[in-house]
Design brief:
- This protein is an alpha/beta fold.
- It contains 3 helices and 5 strands.
- It has a 5-stranded mixed beta sheet with strand order 1-5-3-4-2.
- Helix 1 packs across helix 2.
- The radius of gyration is 14 Å and the shape is globular.
Length: 124
């Protein structure tokens, strides 16, 4: 699992308290460009190849997409980790295009929130 290097600071705003991390409650969060290399995607994606290729073409044309949601978790040892569970087609399109960053909305969550997604595989 990758952790964010200490010099990578994708969010330029102060941390938001954990209240609700539903995808329907993130519209007021700023869009930031998160380095692709720091985002962990622990659940394998099931992809529609045509959709990925279409997204790649659209990204190359400069079209804007809804930012992916990235959960930022600070482990008990102080290390920061970034996880994305949705946005699989957008993420894959950027990955294949070798994008350095991806437009994202960062949602700060406690380690306990990740246990809902990862169960016994949660590293915290």
């Amino acid at each position: 699992m990758l952790q964010a290097p200490s010099h990578d600071s994708p969010a330029s705003t102060a941390p938001r308290p954990f209240v609700n991390f539903s995808k329907f409650a993130t519209g007021d969060l700023p869009t930031v460009h998160v380095p692709m290399k720091v985002i962990n995607r622990p659940i394998p994606s099931v992809l529609d190849e045509e959709k990925v290729l279409r997204f790649m073409d659209d990204i190359k044309k400069g079209d804007d997409f809804t930012p992916i949601e990235v959960l930022k978790c600070t482990a008990p040892d102080g290390q920061r980790y970034y996880f994305a569970f949705g946005g699989c087609h957008r993420f894959e399109a950027h990955k294949r295009l070798q994008s350095e960053t991806i437009p994202s909305r960062i949602i700060e969550v406690p380690p306990s929130a990740l246990r809902m997604y990862l169960g016994a595989s949660c590293p915290f």
